[in-house]
Amino acid sequence: MQETLTCARCGRRMTRRRRWRDRPDTVRYCSDACRNRRIGQSDRALEAAIVSLLESRSASATICPSEAVRVVYPELPGSELRRHMEAARQAARRLIAAGSLEMLQRGHVVAPSTARGPIRLRLKRTPPEA
Ligand SMILES: [Zn+2]
Q1: Which fold has domain 41-123?
Q2: Ligand 1 mean position to 129 CA, how many Å?
Q3: Where along the chain do its domains lie?
């Protein structure tokens, strides 16, 4: 059984609850808010933008989620980008949950569920062969 559950919408870790005990695999969302905000085209576009921005750079390069927002909404004035930042962070957390990305603050990998403030994203490095 998988011990760590991640919300399919916001990508945050979910605390195990008693009512999940029987069928934890059926629980996909952390809250009604997340359940009601299904992932749409723009969310998938943000995920794709994050990956393609990182893949076009060196392996150790990092990006700010706002760069992905800029790719998906090229027409948007800078002052409006903010509105999509949480969606970009959620897209990043989903990618992290899928194992393809990591989140950094001041050069250190941080927990995506609890990080506050500015973050950077980096492709997850494959661990060195043992
Ligand atoms: Zn959620």
Answers
A1: Arc Repressor Mutant, subunit A (1.10.10)
A2: 34
A3: 5-36, 41-123
Report residues near ion ligand 1: CB below 5 Å: 7, 9-10, 30, 34
pLDDT > 80? residue 23: no
- 13: CA distance to ligand 1 center in Å? 8
**CA 43 to centroid of ligand 1, rounded, Å:** 14
Q: What DSSP letter does each residue of 93-121 carry, written as one string?
A: HHHHHTTSEEEEETTEEE-TTT--S--EE
Are the C-beta atoms of residues 74 and 80 closer than 8 Å to each other?
Answer: no
Global pTM value: 0.86
Quick one: pLDDT at residue 127? 65
Residue-wise pLDDT for 43-71, tens only, equals: 999 999 999 999 999 888 999 999 999 99
